[in-house]
Amino acid sequence: MSHHYPFELQPLPYPYDALEPHIDMETLHFHHDKHLKTYVDNLNKALEPYGEYHSRSLEELLTHYKDLPDELQPAVKNNGGGVYNHQLYFSLLTPEKTEPSGRLAEELDRTFGGFEEFQQQFSEMAMKVFGSGYTWLVKDERDRLAIVSYPNQDTPLPHGLKPVLLIDVWEHAYYLKNQNRRADYIRNWFQVLNWDQAAKNYELGLE
């Protein structure tokens, strides 16, 4: 994804069938090539008349979206959030087996009492999302971890929180394979979660 307008749809970092059987090829194709592309196109269309914002990064736009013109705020919050959230989501999937490591693993132990406890709490939070949204593992300004959920395409950025990882619980992320069985999707998602990338996300900005 380019760092500023015009934003581009970046290819997946793995083949469409690479996450089988946990996330199926058809879902990944529609999720990335259709849903994400729509968000990219709509964000560019909304920003096109506002040249003064073309040099701003997506992170800047989302962090300070309330400072934008009133008529531009919904498009940036919804479509910009859709681009940001999906790009992060796809970057956190991998066909390789990974495990929590380094300072992130230490902080998971300190905050939640271990990986299994974190997985249980995170899964429970993701199951409780009503309708569409995401569940996140975030860090605050003191590098402490927390599990939060936001509806629709909202992000933690305006709240001063930095994302470590997230799961998309919009039905389009899992319905073709799992129908209404969100719990099955969450279990499958953990099997392809890229903990190496999550560790990099956590370590960004650490002293």
Explain the overall architecture.
There is one protein chain. The protein is mainly alpha-helical and 207 residues long. The protein has eight helices and three strands. It has helices at residues 25-47, 58-63, 73-91, 102-112, 115-128, 175-178, 182-191, 195-203; strands at residues 133-139, 145-151, 162-168. The protein has a three-stranded antiparallel β-sheet, sandwiched between helices. The protein starts with 24 loop residues before the first helix and ends with a helix.
Question: Tags for this entry?
Answer:
three-stranded antiparallel β-sheet; 8 helices; globular; 207 residues; 46% helix; 10% strand; Helix Hairpins; 2 domains; minor pseudopilin epsh fold; mainly alpha; single chain
What is the compact description of this entry?
The protein has 207 residues and is mainly alpha-helical.
Strand content: 5-15%
CATH class type of the largest domain: Alpha Beta
**Span from first to last CA?**
27 Å
CATH architecture level-2 label of the largest domain = 3-Layer(bab) Sandwich
Question: Number of helix segments?
Answer: 8
Largest sheet: 3 strands, antiparallel
- The neighbouring-strand order within the major sheet is 2-1-3
CATH topology of the largest domain: minor pseudopilin epsh fold
Structural class: mainly alpha
- Which shape, going by the Cα principal axes? globular
Q: How large, in whole angstroms, is the Cα Rg?
A: 17 Å
Helix content: 40-55%
The number of distinct structural domains comes to 2
> Which segments are poorly predicted (pLDDT under 50) over 5 or more consecutive residues?
none
Superfamily at the CATH H level of the largest domain? Iron/manganese superoxide dismutase, C-terminal domain
Overall strand count: 3
Query: Order of SSEs, N→C?
Result: HHHHHEEEHHH
Mean pLDDT: 95
